[in-house]
């Protein structure tokens, strides 16, 4: 076999195996795409509606009050609860930043008695709103446009 014949043979061999290599690379790409498609299907098939519990109660008339009724809080490492069955009601219209005091329901003192539990009200609008909620927040802002909450800070005192 001459050097020229060997060169031509290797060139043909390379041209023959190039599509085979490309096909092998394509198989890997197809497998990755199939896995991605499977993940997308799993996300799309999830139930986007939170199912309602069969024993759910009707809320009745909503008054705008927030109530924490007989709440207990305990650290995992603690044997006794830090807060044991305290009740707190936040009235409608309570402003952001208001500090509420629950007397005798706070952290234990050195002498064994309990201090007061201080709760700060933080009103926060969610980062993402649907169209109806966004319209409600905008309507509220426009209704309160002339109201300056700081104007009442020093009235009735001093």
Report how far the terminal alpha carbons are from each other.
112 Å
The structural domain count equals: 2
CATH topology of the largest domain, which one?
HSP40/DNAj peptide-binding domain
Q: Detail the poorly predicted runs.
A: none
CATH architecture of the largest domain: Sandwich
Q: Please provide the ordered H/E string of secondary-structure elements.
A: HEEEEH
The mean pLDDT is: 81
- Overall geometry comes to elongated
* Strand order in the sheet with the most strands: 1-2
Compute the number of strand runs: 4
Rg result: 34 Å
Write a structural description.
It is a single chain. The chain has 2 domains: 1-49; 66-142, Sandwich (HSP40/DNAj peptide-binding domain). 35% of the residues lie in helices and 15% in strands. It is elongated. By secondary structure, the protein is α+β, with helices and mostly antiparallel strands. The chain contains 2 helices and 4 strands; from the N terminus they run H-E-E-E-E-H. The protein has helices spanning 3-45, 131-143; strands at 66-73, 83-90, 99-102, 117-120. The protein has a two-stranded antiparallel ribbon. Strands 3-4 form a two-stranded antiparallel ribbon.
């Amino acid at each position: 076999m001459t050097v020229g014949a060997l060169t031509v043979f290797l060139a043909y061999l390379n041209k023959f195996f190039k599509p085979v290599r490309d096909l092998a690379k394509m198989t890997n790409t197809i497998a990755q795409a199939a896995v991605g498609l499977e993940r997308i299907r799993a996300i799309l098939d999830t139930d986007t509606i939170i199912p309602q519990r069969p024993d759910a109660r009707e809320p009745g008339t909503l008054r705008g009050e927030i109530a924490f009724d007989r709440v207990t809080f305990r650290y995992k490492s603690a044997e006794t609860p830090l807060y044991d069955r305290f009740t707190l009601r936040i009235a409608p219209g309570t402003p952001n930043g208001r500090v509420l005091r629950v007397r005798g329901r706070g952290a234990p003192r050195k002498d064994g008695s309990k201090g007061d539990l201080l709760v700060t009200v933080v009103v926060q609008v969610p980062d993402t709103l649907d169209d109806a909620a966004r319209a409600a927040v905008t309507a509220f802002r426009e209704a309160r446009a002339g109201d300056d909450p700081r104007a009442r800070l020093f009235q009735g005192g001093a």
